[in-house]
Amino acid sequence: MKQLLTPRQKEFVALADSLVEKFRDRAAANDESNEFPFENYEDMRRVGLLNLSVPEELGGMGATLFEVIPVIERLAYGDAATALAVNMHITPLAQWSEVWRKTGSPRLESLLREAAEGNLVWAAITSEFGTPNLMTDARTKAVRVDGGFRITGRKNFGTNSAVATHASTTARYDDPDKGPQLLMLKVSLKDNPSVRIHPVWNMMGMRATQSNDLEFADLFVPDEDVVHSFPVGYLDATVTETVFGSSQPAFGAVYVGLADAAIDWAKQQLRRRGLVDNPRVQDAIADVEILLETARAVLYRHTTQFGTPEYYDEFTLQEIVANSALVKHVCSSNAVAIFSRLIDVVGGAAYAKSLPFERMWRDVQAGQFMPVSSLAAHEFIAASSFGLELAPTHGSLKVEAAE
User: Fold this and answer.
1) Residue 198 forms beta bridges with which residues?
2) CATH of domain 235-394
3) 83: which of 40, 76, 299, 311 fits an S-S bond (Cβ 3.0–4.6 Å)?
4) What is the 3-state secondary structure (H, E, C) of 351-381?
């Protein structure tokens, strides 16, 4: 169904629209060959989308999270794997841009200017084998050395690592005074002998993301690249503000855009077959449109409210994590349900590898286990509803504006 977008949202979405057809045409080949969509990245760079969320005064387009979300959705309409990959660059920059606007941090300003100049492409790589990736602990180890830390460990689901120059990651440091701390780190990936990418990505769907494993072997991270630290096992305010509140709706937007593409493809098939007047077909299409617009309603309510002083005053850290997880869960679960319902009217065409529905159907499954996973989302939502504390909290979301 049609969306009511602001003038700025329309301006940014038009950039994505200019690429949708190209992305769609390349998607099947990239999926089949299990290759990263390098051409798509160059197209996004050419039209300026890699600078979408960098503040205008620092050389970017200045899109807020509310303005980024429909762009991610539209990119996913063309190719979900490309949208998911570039999301790992655009969304962190959006998070840090908001923090920079509040704090005027020189370090963040330098990073954002690098991105605007085309010298920095980001990836958020924190996932590890056998962990829920809730940003409360890590198996990757940090050892204190002169001037910084030595990092050793292996991460998986390294989305966007095929093109990223830098990444954010996590490591556990057993501080002799403060106890176990989780470090949030900025690491350089390009031509770094201490970083090895293991080409193990051979999944059912989202194949073109090439979300390979990364191994850090005695990687030196200087003190100035330790972005943040907090006690292991805690829900942290900075993580909540810069990760959960932004990444969850952005992940959700990928699956909303993918589901939208599936609906439009199915409607084309049904028109071609002369079935648009069929009551069963109309019932199915109404069902999927309702699911899609329900997801969008939750998605855009969150991006409108998140980050406002009123929102931070009203909700606890755990409640904000729960709200953020709810957004991603509704979007990804509704997207899966949309595909299942469309099969009722598309029939065997959904199963044909020569047609795009089959690839999109495989891609949509990834949303169910991406963080925050459905199980973890339910835990946070239920505990917050009952007023139960899942973990202690660290820090405050009340950030003073820069003078």
Assistant:
1) 213
2) 1.20.140.10
3) 76
4) HCCCCHHHHHHHHHHHHHCCCCCHHHHHHHH
